[in-house]
Amino acid sequence: MAGVAEGCVIGVDLGGTKLLAGAVDADLAVHHRTNRPALGLGQLDLVEMVADAVAGVRTAVGGDVTAVGFGIPCTFDARTGTAVQAVNLPLQDIRFADVMAERLGLPVVVDNDANCAVLAEARAGAAAGCDEVAMLTIGTGIGGGLYLRGEVYRGWIGSGAELGHMVVERDGRPCQGNCPNWGCLESVASGTALVREVSLSVARRPDTALGRALEAGQELTGPMITELASAGDPVAGDAIGVVGRALGVGIANLVNIFNPQVVVIGGGVSAAGDLLLDPAREVMALRALRPGSEVVRVEAAAFGAEAGMVGAAILARERPPGIPSAS
Ligand SMILES: [Zn+2]
After folding, report:
1. Is the separation of the CB atoms in 14 and 71 below 8 Å?
2. Distance between CA atoms of 89 and 172, rounded to whole angstroms?
Protein backbone atom coordinates (compact mmCIF):
# COMPACT_ATOMS: atom_id res chain seq x y z
CA MET A 1 0.00 0.00 0.00
CA ALA A 2 1.31 3.43 -0.90
CA GLY A 3 1.61 6.24 1.57
CA VAL A 4 2.67 4.31 4.63
CA ALA A 5 3.35 6.86 7.35
CA GLU A 6 6.88 8.12 7.58
CA GLY A 7 8.85 6.58 10.36
CA CYS A 8 7.43 3.10 9.98
CA VAL A 9 8.86 0.35 12.13
CA ILE A 10 9.15 -3.33 11.26
CA GLY A 11 7.82 -5.98 13.62
CA VAL A 12 9.08 -9.55 13.41
CA ASP A 13 7.64 -12.60 15.15
CA LEU A 14 9.87 -15.64 14.90
CA GLY A 15 8.06 -18.82 15.90
CA GLY A 16 9.10 -22.45 16.06
CA THR A 17 7.63 -23.11 12.62
CA LYS A 18 7.62 -19.81 10.77
CA LEU A 19 8.53 -16.15 10.76
CA LEU A 20 5.99 -13.39 10.30
CA ALA A 21 7.19 -9.85 9.61
CA GLY A 22 5.50 -6.64 8.57
CA ALA A 23 5.78 -2.88 8.56
CA VAL A 24 3.61 -1.42 11.31
CA ASP A 25 2.46 2.19 11.29
CA ALA A 26 1.76 4.43 14.29
CA ASP A 27 -1.89 3.26 14.35
CA LEU A 28 -0.69 -0.38 14.54
CA ALA A 29 -1.93 -1.15 11.04
CA VAL A 30 0.24 -3.78 9.36
CA HIS A 31 1.57 -3.40 5.81
CA HIS A 32 3.75 -5.55 3.57
CA ARG A 33 3.49 -8.79 5.52
CA THR A 34 5.93 -11.57 4.78
CA ASN A 35 5.95 -15.20 5.90
CA ARG A 36 8.98 -17.52 5.93
CA PRO A 37 9.39 -21.11 7.08
CA ALA A 38 11.75 -21.46 10.06
CA LEU A 39 11.47 -25.18 10.71
CA GLY A 40 14.65 -27.19 10.27
CA LEU A 41 17.09 -24.26 9.97
CA GLY A 42 20.26 -24.09 12.07
CA GLN A 43 21.19 -20.91 13.95
CA LEU A 44 23.30 -19.38 11.15
CA ASP A 45 20.66 -20.05 8.51
CA LEU A 46 17.95 -18.72 10.83
CA VAL A 47 19.83 -15.44 11.28
CA GLU A 48 20.30 -15.25 7.52
CA MET A 49 16.62 -15.92 6.82
CA VAL A 50 15.46 -13.36 9.42
CA ALA A 51 17.75 -10.62 8.09
CA ASP A 52 16.62 -11.37 4.54
CA ALA A 53 12.92 -11.22 5.51
CA VAL A 54 13.41 -7.82 7.19
CA ALA A 55 15.31 -6.51 4.18
CA GLY A 56 12.43 -7.63 1.96
CA VAL A 57 9.85 -5.76 4.05
CA ARG A 58 12.09 -2.70 4.16
CA THR A 59 12.33 -2.64 0.38
CA ALA A 60 8.56 -3.07 0.07
CA VAL A 61 7.92 -0.15 2.44
CA GLY A 62 9.97 2.14 0.28
CA GLY A 63 10.03 4.91 2.87
CA ASP A 64 11.87 5.43 6.10
CA VAL A 65 12.13 2.57 8.55
CA THR A 66 13.28 3.86 11.92
CA ALA A 67 13.73 0.64 13.89
CA VAL A 68 13.07 -3.10 13.94
CA GLY A 69 11.54 -5.07 16.81
CA PHE A 70 11.98 -8.82 17.14
CA GLY A 71 9.90 -11.23 19.18
CA ILE A 72 11.79 -14.52 19.43
CA PRO A 73 10.83 -17.67 21.38
CA CYS A 74 13.82 -17.51 23.71
CA THR A 75 14.77 -16.84 27.29
CA PHE A 76 17.00 -13.79 27.82
CA ASP A 77 19.71 -12.63 30.16
CA ALA A 78 19.35 -8.86 30.45
CA ARG A 79 22.76 -8.64 32.18
CA THR A 80 24.50 -9.58 28.95
CA GLY A 81 21.85 -8.75 26.33
CA THR A 82 21.93 -12.38 25.26
CA ALA A 83 19.16 -14.62 23.95
CA VAL A 84 20.03 -17.69 26.00
CA GLN A 85 17.88 -20.63 24.94
CA ALA A 86 14.97 -21.33 22.64
CA VAL A 87 12.92 -24.46 23.34
CA ASN A 88 11.69 -25.06 19.81
CA LEU A 89 14.40 -23.45 17.64
CA PRO A 90 18.18 -23.92 17.53
CA LEU A 91 18.88 -20.47 19.00
CA GLN A 92 21.32 -20.43 21.89
CA ASP A 93 23.61 -17.88 23.58
CA ILE A 94 23.37 -15.32 20.80
CA ARG A 95 23.52 -11.53 21.14
CA PHE A 96 20.60 -11.35 18.76
CA ALA A 97 20.08 -7.56 18.97
CA ASP A 98 23.75 -6.84 18.19
CA VAL A 99 23.84 -9.36 15.35
CA MET A 100 20.70 -7.93 13.74
CA ALA A 101 21.69 -4.28 14.23
CA GLU A 102 24.98 -4.98 12.50
CA ARG A 103 23.30 -6.87 9.66
CA LEU A 104 20.54 -4.34 9.11
CA GLY A 105 22.17 -1.02 10.03
CA LEU A 106 19.04 -0.08 11.99
CA PRO A 107 18.21 0.29 15.69
CA VAL A 108 16.95 -3.04 17.00
CA VAL A 109 15.07 -4.24 20.07
CA VAL A 110 14.53 -7.88 20.97
CA ASP A 111 12.16 -9.49 23.43
CA ASN A 112 10.50 -12.81 24.04
CA ASP A 113 7.75 -13.35 21.45
CA ALA A 114 4.97 -13.83 24.00
CA ASN A 115 6.10 -10.74 25.95
CA CYS A 116 5.59 -8.87 22.68
CA ALA A 117 2.17 -10.46 22.21
CA VAL A 118 0.88 -9.53 25.66
CA LEU A 119 2.07 -5.95 25.14
CA ALA A 120 0.05 -5.66 21.91
CA GLU A 121 -3.08 -7.16 23.47
CA ALA A 122 -2.83 -4.98 26.59
CA ARG A 123 -2.29 -1.79 24.60
CA ALA A 124 -4.88 -2.23 21.89
CA GLY A 125 -6.27 -5.77 21.80
CA ALA A 126 -8.42 -8.12 23.88
CA ALA A 127 -7.05 -6.66 27.13
CA ALA A 128 -7.08 -2.98 26.15
CA GLY A 129 -7.42 -0.80 29.22
CA CYS A 130 -6.42 -3.60 31.61
CA ASP A 131 -3.39 -3.41 33.92
CA GLU A 132 -3.32 -7.09 34.96
CA VAL A 133 -3.09 -9.49 32.03
CA ALA A 134 -1.71 -12.97 31.45
CA MET A 135 -1.25 -14.40 27.99
CA LEU A 136 -0.55 -17.81 26.51
CA THR A 137 0.41 -18.16 22.84
CA ILE A 138 -0.40 -21.62 21.55
CA GLY A 139 1.69 -22.64 18.55
CA THR A 140 4.49 -25.16 18.12
CA GLY A 141 5.06 -24.59 21.85
CA ILE A 142 3.31 -22.41 24.41
CA GLY A 143 4.66 -18.91 25.04
CA GLY A 144 3.81 -16.93 28.14
CA GLY A 145 3.56 -13.20 28.77
CA LEU A 146 2.61 -11.19 31.84
CA TYR A 147 1.50 -7.57 31.92
CA LEU A 148 1.32 -6.57 35.58
CA ARG A 149 0.53 -3.15 37.03
CA GLY A 150 0.51 -1.77 33.50
CA GLU A 151 3.91 -3.08 32.36
CA VAL A 152 5.35 -6.19 30.78
CA TYR A 153 6.84 -8.25 33.62
CA ARG A 154 10.08 -10.00 32.67
CA GLY A 155 11.42 -11.04 36.10
CA TRP A 156 14.81 -10.34 37.65
CA ILE A 157 17.24 -10.78 34.74
CA GLY A 158 14.66 -10.76 31.95
CA SER A 159 14.14 -14.50 31.52
CA GLY A 160 10.41 -14.55 32.41
CA ALA A 161 7.65 -15.36 31.94
CA GLU A 162 7.72 -18.91 30.59
CA LEU A 163 4.15 -19.77 31.52
CA GLY A 164 4.04 -22.63 29.00
CA HIS A 165 6.55 -24.51 31.14
CA MET A 166 4.48 -24.53 34.31
CA VAL A 167 4.06 -28.15 35.33
CA VAL A 168 0.50 -29.47 35.18
CA GLU A 169 1.35 -33.20 35.50
CA ARG A 170 4.19 -33.89 37.92
CA ASP A 171 5.02 -37.22 36.33
CA GLY A 172 3.77 -36.33 32.88
CA ARG A 173 5.42 -36.86 29.52
CA PRO A 174 8.80 -35.26 28.73
CA CYS A 175 8.40 -31.71 27.45
CA GLN A 176 9.57 -30.96 23.93
CA GLY A 177 12.63 -29.41 22.33
CA ASN A 178 15.26 -28.08 24.70
CA CYS A 179 13.07 -28.07 27.84
CA PRO A 180 14.56 -30.34 30.52
CA ASN A 181 11.25 -30.66 32.41
CA TRP A 182 8.30 -32.99 32.02
CA GLY A 183 4.57 -32.57 32.46
CA CYS A 184 4.74 -28.92 31.30
CA LEU A 185 1.56 -27.26 29.99
CA GLU A 186 3.36 -27.15 26.64
CA SER A 187 3.53 -30.94 26.60
CA VAL A 188 -0.27 -31.29 26.76
CA ALA A 189 -1.80 -28.11 25.29
CA SER A 190 0.47 -26.92 22.43
CA GLY A 191 -0.12 -27.27 18.69
CA THR A 192 2.34 -30.16 18.83
CA ALA A 193 0.20 -31.86 21.50
CA LEU A 194 -2.89 -31.24 19.34
CA VAL A 195 -1.30 -32.97 16.34
CA ARG A 196 -0.28 -35.88 18.58
CA GLU A 197 -3.79 -36.15 20.03
CA VAL A 198 -5.32 -36.23 16.56
CA SER A 199 -2.79 -38.79 15.29
CA LEU A 200 -3.78 -41.14 18.10
CA SER A 201 -7.53 -40.83 17.61
CA VAL A 202 -7.79 -40.66 13.82
CA ALA A 203 -6.52 -44.22 13.52
CA ARG A 204 -9.62 -45.36 15.42
CA ARG A 205 -11.98 -43.27 13.27
CA PRO A 206 -10.64 -43.37 9.69
CA ASP A 207 -14.05 -42.67 8.13
CA THR A 208 -14.02 -38.93 8.84
CA ALA A 209 -12.90 -35.87 6.87
CA LEU A 210 -9.64 -35.92 8.79
CA GLY A 211 -9.15 -39.65 8.23
CA ARG A 212 -9.74 -39.23 4.51
CA ALA A 213 -7.34 -36.27 4.32
CA LEU A 214 -4.63 -38.37 5.92
CA GLU A 215 -5.47 -41.29 3.65
CA ALA A 216 -4.94 -38.92 0.70
CA GLY A 217 -1.43 -38.20 1.96
CA GLN A 218 -2.04 -34.74 3.47
CA GLU A 219 0.28 -33.78 6.30
CA LEU A 220 -1.35 -33.34 9.69
CA THR A 221 -0.92 -29.72 10.83
CA GLY A 222 -2.45 -27.43 13.43
CA PRO A 223 -4.15 -25.17 10.84
CA MET A 224 -5.63 -28.19 9.05
CA ILE A 225 -7.01 -29.56 12.33
CA THR A 226 -8.59 -26.26 13.40
CA GLU A 227 -10.09 -25.82 9.94
CA LEU A 228 -11.64 -29.29 9.90
CA ALA A 229 -12.84 -28.90 13.49
CA SER A 230 -14.63 -25.67 12.54
CA ALA A 231 -16.23 -27.56 9.64
CA GLY A 232 -17.58 -30.14 12.11
CA ASP A 233 -15.08 -33.00 11.85
CA PRO A 234 -15.60 -35.05 15.05
CA VAL A 235 -12.00 -36.26 15.51
CA ALA A 236 -10.55 -32.77 15.07
CA GLY A 237 -13.24 -31.27 17.34
CA ASP A 238 -12.67 -33.86 20.08
CA ALA A 239 -8.90 -33.34 19.98
CA ILE A 240 -9.30 -29.57 20.32
CA GLY A 241 -11.59 -30.23 23.28
CA VAL A 242 -8.91 -32.39 24.95
CA VAL A 243 -6.29 -29.70 24.42
CA GLY A 244 -8.73 -27.00 25.55
CA ARG A 245 -9.39 -28.80 28.85
CA ALA A 246 -5.64 -29.19 29.43
CA LEU A 247 -5.25 -25.49 28.70
CA GLY A 248 -7.94 -24.77 31.30
CA VAL A 249 -5.74 -26.32 34.01
CA GLY A 250 -2.93 -23.93 33.10
CA ILE A 251 -5.32 -20.98 33.06
CA ALA A 252 -6.64 -21.96 36.51
CA ASN A 253 -3.05 -21.74 37.81
CA LEU A 254 -2.63 -18.28 36.28
CA VAL A 255 -5.93 -17.10 37.76
CA ASN A 256 -4.98 -18.36 41.23
CA ILE A 257 -1.50 -16.84 41.18
CA PHE A 258 -1.99 -13.52 39.38
CA ASN A 259 -5.70 -12.68 39.68
CA PRO A 260 -5.64 -11.24 36.13
CA GLN A 261 -8.48 -9.26 34.60
CA VAL A 262 -8.04 -11.11 31.33
CA VAL A 263 -6.21 -14.23 30.21
CA VAL A 264 -5.56 -13.79 26.48
CA ILE A 265 -5.05 -16.87 24.31
CA GLY A 266 -3.10 -16.26 21.10
CA GLY A 267 -0.92 -18.14 18.64
CA GLY A 268 -1.97 -20.20 15.65
CA VAL A 269 -4.09 -22.72 17.57
CA SER A 270 -6.27 -19.91 18.98
CA ALA A 271 -7.82 -19.78 15.48
CA ALA A 272 -10.02 -22.61 16.81
CA GLY A 273 -11.82 -19.92 18.82
CA ASP A 274 -14.51 -21.09 21.22
CA LEU A 275 -13.97 -24.74 20.24
CA LEU A 276 -10.73 -24.35 22.22
CA LEU A 277 -11.73 -21.63 24.68
CA ASP A 278 -15.08 -22.97 25.92
CA PRO A 279 -13.63 -26.19 27.38
CA ALA A 280 -10.71 -24.15 28.77
CA ARG A 281 -13.14 -21.72 30.44
CA GLU A 282 -15.20 -24.59 31.91
CA VAL A 283 -12.17 -26.27 33.48
CA MET A 284 -10.81 -22.97 34.77
CA ALA A 285 -14.18 -22.13 36.39
CA LEU A 286 -14.26 -25.55 38.10
CA ARG A 287 -10.68 -25.51 39.35
CA ALA A 288 -9.64 -21.92 40.12
CA LEU A 289 -10.42 -20.19 43.39
CA ARG A 290 -13.17 -17.64 43.90
CA PRO A 291 -13.45 -14.69 43.51
CA GLY A 292 -10.67 -14.49 40.88
CA SER A 293 -12.27 -17.28 38.83
CA GLU A 294 -15.62 -15.48 38.74
CA VAL A 295 -14.39 -12.17 37.38
CA VAL A 296 -11.64 -13.15 34.97
CA ARG A 297 -12.26 -13.14 31.22
CA VAL A 298 -10.62 -15.71 28.95
CA GLU A 299 -10.42 -14.21 25.47
CA ALA A 300 -8.88 -14.95 22.09
CA ALA A 301 -6.18 -12.50 21.02
CA ALA A 302 -7.69 -9.59 19.10
CA PHE A 303 -4.56 -9.42 16.94
CA GLY A 304 -4.82 -13.18 16.37
CA ALA A 305 -1.59 -14.75 15.18
CA GLU A 306 -0.17 -11.24 14.55
CA ALA A 307 -0.04 -10.16 18.22
CA GLY A 308 3.68 -10.95 18.57
CA MET A 309 4.56 -9.04 15.41
CA VAL A 310 2.51 -5.99 16.44
CA GLY A 311 3.98 -6.02 19.97
CA ALA A 312 7.52 -6.26 18.58
CA ALA A 313 6.73 -3.19 16.48
CA ILE A 314 5.44 -1.31 19.55
CA LEU A 315 8.76 -2.08 21.29
CA ALA A 316 10.70 -0.92 18.24
CA ARG A 317 8.84 2.37 18.29
CA GLU A 318 9.31 2.91 22.04
CA ARG A 319 12.67 1.20 22.64
CA PRO A 320 12.23 0.98 26.41
CA PRO A 321 15.29 0.41 28.62
CA GLY A 322 15.82 -3.00 30.20
CA ILE A 323 15.48 -5.23 27.13
CA PRO A 324 18.23 -6.17 24.67
CA SER A 325 18.67 -3.41 22.09
CA ALA A 326 21.33 -2.09 19.74
CA SER A 327 21.64 0.70 17.23
ZN1 LIG B 1 8.68 -27.52 29.31
Report:
1. yes
2. 23
Amino acid at 184: C
Q: How far apart are CA 106 and CA 85, in angstroms?
A: 24
Pick the closest to residue 175 from 192, 158, 159, 161 (CA basis): 192
- For 53, residues 6+ apart whose C-beta sits below 8 A from its C-beta are 12, 19, 21, 34, 36
- For residues 165-194, one letter each, b for 16 or more C-beta atoms within 10 angstroms of the residue's C-beta and e for the rest, the string is bbbbeeeeeebbbebeeebbbbbbbbbbbb
Segment-wise mean pLDDT, segments of 10 residues, the chain, 327 residues: 64 94 95 94 95 96 92 94 93 96 96 98 98 96 97 95 97 96 97 93 87 87 90 93 98 98 96 96 98 98 96 96 88
- Expressed in angstroms, the distance from the first to the final Cα of the chain is 28
- CA–chain centroid gap for 267, Å, is 5
Distance 148 CA to ligand 1 centre (A): 23
The answer to whether 248 and 283 are in contact (CB under 8 A) is yes
As a whole number of angstroms, the distance between CA 65 and CA 98 comes to 18
Instruction: Please tell me the distance between residue 28's alpha carbon and the centre of ligand 1 in angstroms.
Output: 32
**SS3 call for 66:** strand
- Three-class DSSP category at 150: coil
Q: Report how far ligand 1's centroid is from the alpha carbon of 62 (Å).
A: 42
